[in-house]
Amino acid sequence: QVQLVESGGGLVQAGGSLRLSCAASGRIFSGNAMAWYRQAPGKQRELVADITSGGSTNYADSVKGRFTISRDNAKNMVDLQMNSLKSEDTAVYCCNFRYVGSARAYWGPGTQVTVSS
Questions:
Q1: CA 60, CA 75: separation in Å to the nearest integer?
Q2: β-strand pairing of 91-99 with 32-39
Q3: Radius of gyration in angstroms for the set of CA atoms belonging to the chain, rounded to a whole number
Q4: Dihedral sign computed on CA atoms, order 99, 100, 105, 108
Q5: What is the DSSP letter of 35?
Q6: How far apart are CA 14 and CA 51, in angstroms?
Q7: pLDDT of residue 100
Q8: CB distance 12 to 18 below 8 Å
Q9: What is the predicted pLDDT for the residue at 103?
Q10: Beta carbons of 38 and 48 less than 8 angstroms apart
């Protein structure tokens, strides 16, 4: 029903910035949330940030003050602006889509972010 594709990953120096984008296609209805997850080598997947269709946001403690999630409902797109990147931010970042109250989740294929120190 929903297809997601991420872009914007790459290699960046510590202290630098990257902006990730996730474009959703298909029929998108209100009452949903989009999120960025990441999985670093040897670690479990973790929620980085999420945002509802109403604009409410949530961030992992490790990225508060450095990352900003935003969305454009008209374009069905969610972005993650990542500033002051650290080596521990290195991970595969995946976009996620859920309807509020639903267990069904949609995932993008992921984009690699590598932060060199």
A1: 25
A2: antiparallel
A3: 14
A4: positive
A5: E
A6: 26
A7: 87
A8: yes
A9: 84
A10: yes
Tokens 């490790």 sit on residue = 62
pLDDT for the residue numbered 37: 98
Bridge-based pairing of strands 18-26 and 2-7 is antiparallel
What single-letter amino acid sits at 29? F
Q: In the chain, which residues have pLDDT < 50?
A: none
Q: Which two tokens stand for residue 61?
A: 């403690």
Amino acid code (one letter) for 102: S
Distance CA 106, CA 4 (A): 7
Task: Please name which of 12, 7, 11, 15 lies closest in space to residue 36, comparing C-alpha atoms.
Answer: 7
Residue 59, pLDDT score? 98
Give the pLDDT confidence score for residue 27 in this predicted structure: 85
